[in-house]
Amino acid sequence: MATHIRAGEITARRISPAGSDRHTYEIKLTAYFDMQNGEGAANAQNSVFFTIGSAFGGPDSRPAVLEAPRIPPIPNIGNNTTQNIYIINYTFPTTGLYRISFEEDNRNNNVLNIGPPPTQNLNFYVSTILEINSSYGQNQTPVLLNAPIDVAAVGQRYIHNPGAFDADGDSLAYRLFIPQRSGVNGSGINLQYKDPNMVTPPGQTEAGGSPATFSMDRVTGDLVWDAPVTKGYYNVAFVVEEWRDGALIGQIVRDMQIIVEDARNDRPVIQPIPDICVEAGTLINQPITATDKNGDRLTLTSTGGVYEASLVPPPVAKFTVAQQGSQGTVTGMFTWQTSCAHVRLEPYDVLFKVEDAAGPGVPNPSLFRKLVDMTTVNIKVYGPKPTGLRGVAVTDPTGTAYRLNWDAYKCQIPGAKIAIYRAEKCTELREDVCSPGIPAGSGYEEIGRVDASQTTFLDNNAGEGLRPGVSYSYRLVAMFPRPGASPSDPGYLIGGGESLASAEFCLNLPMVMPVITNVTVDTTSTTSGVITIKWTRPAASAGLPAQYRLFRATGQNGTAFTQIAAINTNLAAGARDTIFVDRGLNTEANAYNYKLEYYTTVNGQLTKFDETETASSVRLEQDAAQPNQIGLKWTALVPWDNSNRVHRVYREDKARPGTFNRIAEVSVQGPQTFTFIDDGTDKYAADGTVNVTIVRDSTYCYKVETVGSYNNSQIKPSVLYNFSQILCISSSDTTKPCPPVLSLDPLNCDSLRAHPEAFCTTSGFTNHLSWEYPTEVDGRECDPLVTAYRVYYARYEGDAPTLVATITTPPSPLQTSFDHVGLTSFAGCYYVTAVNRFGSESAPSNVVCRDNCPMYVLPNVFTPNGDSKNDVFQPYECPAFVQSLEFKAFNRWGAQVFSTKDVNINWDGKTNGGKELAAGQYYYELVIYFESSKKQSTPVTMKGWVQLLR
Questions:
Q1: pTM, to two decimals
Q2: pLDDT averaged over the chain?
């Protein structure tokens, strides 16, 4: 007769005060009993027993077994089911990971998808994992606000959502689980189980698709069976996971029953409702409408933590239905006056549920089966924007700084902070009210954090001062503590919400330091080349007279600087002290790099104040092109921005030697290297049109003019023009070499594993590459005059490769191999290019990638007895190329006793809680990720056993 348990779950709520060293919790079982088949047993269930012990279990663990009384039950929640609640208060002895479980005979009979039958002989078991951890502060489990008993109809889509709510604001996730019976010491053992859609041959979904499906949405918690085929009882289980700051800190198992009936009825439908994102303080008024095509009477209800003053700070939400029970259509109004106390990271889930009932036109109401539909709405409450952000440059002992000020913040929540973000250059942000804060990749970085009651912050770049000539952009974001947390809790801002970013404050620092604005080639020659360098005049300051010292290095990346000029200045307006003409250069063969040092007078002595960033001349080179075209490319390594501009290309007019005609304006995007193909057509008519026919072995001369800017209103001129040298080439010069064919010597992993000590070094590995240069590709003759090969390497597939070697003459013939030495890993990808005598580079060769020879070997015995010999379980020799791993150890009953992510494992024979384990045989499972050429390497699973001896 005792066939009475349909469903249930266990929740826990901390009742000891915050900051207390006592860990007292209210533990609650919410159970659902069958009053149709087991009324006597259900009525007699006046108390239950909780088993509370370590989540790791173990043969020597002794859990506590405590009796909990029943509070008055809810006699009928529908479908011949009562809700019974059992509560006990329990003080946990210490922090740790605990399992709370409940078991009771008997489940109700004739459940179709669990076994072995008869199901009335199977006991009912659920458990909850609760982590009590001082580093997390307060923690309680989610609560499940939607009862797990609904009727599903044959052939119609069924949906259940537990209505989970976490008062701590933790993130929730969901996954299916296998219903269990009780094991030893409070553990569970899986029942024989089939997903409900697999009990009989799957039919069709409600929309006619095949086969029928059964699934659970990991994010929303929607449990959907689309659609049942056979009527009867079905039991399913799922886990509600609780996450904080990326760590799993608890989980609840709900075991529930689905009652499938033949329904001469169609389920009602709730009209779609968009998610809601509002600023704290907004009054939400959201209508909810449900319809029934059969004209049945409808009852519309809502559940969620937003209605419970014990779960969210007041004011709480309200849901009112003006004409509950109306036929065909029913509308309710969800109302919530949000406040600053409601701001949190995770959205609030509000469940809406409609249930139909027989209308007056139903011929036989006794055969009517009530059906439901439900939907969950996410409500995101974010903080108001900080306002009134402004600032002023001030003099600080460390250099130039900004003093920022703003208005008093609206939401003075204890523990809330104002985060200060900074970016270089004035920056626009796309605002998304459903994703508050500063978006990733925006260029902003957090530079400080103050209490929300503060309205000022000094930015002196952490004592290093701010750079002159840079526009600094600032924004503020309010950060809120996790609900229920206090500033004394570790990580109290984890799980808290944010505000939208404030409006931008952007202001230039005074130009107390010059910046280079021009490095332009005036004359191209091997001996008499001329380059003009210009810079800005800084703001007047103490320490006059001052002096500029100009330095030059050969090459765009040159670093061997030599002083070429010293120019005294009193910073007088109009003085020609911010220009220097550098003569006698080989501008035909070389680019040049410049920097400027600025000296001021301190105690009567010229003292270096600062130096500029370096700026190079523009370098024009030939690029690949067809025989009847000329390819050009140019670069300039400068502190200003030459991208997103229109550069100018000039070609010498052969009818007027020495006269250059502008032939094109090139829109450029990339930050450094720019290209143009000249087919002879003059594409710029403003200075006259001079078209030519480009023929092989005829010479053509070019120069380019870059156009750039600092994008800083203090730097004049705002647009900067700089010429390259003159480059004269023929169309035959641009014949592109062919890509080489690359190979990579294979690794002999067996040989390497025979000498495992080689893996104990963290560097010194070598990859040997070799390649061949073809004579022709796809019928096209390859340029035979290759003067260099360039070797490129990327650590991972898909990464941008970097140049690691250039192989040039001598020797002769040109070397076609390369040893990449000093590596910390064999893994990586390579390609090679060929370069001809004109500097034209081929397309990349084939890409060759290599993986490592991983080695990870574990012993089968260890002796943690304190004699310093084999005291820990760890791998032999040196674990090779391990990226990450997860190790789990189990006792012979299958209970997990230890876990770690330590690459060396270092298991000392104790549980994670520090309890010594008994001698015996233990089993392990190891999921390991080895370093490879792929960013997401494929996991390798290793299973085995180890003998623990004492």
A1: 0.59
A2: 89
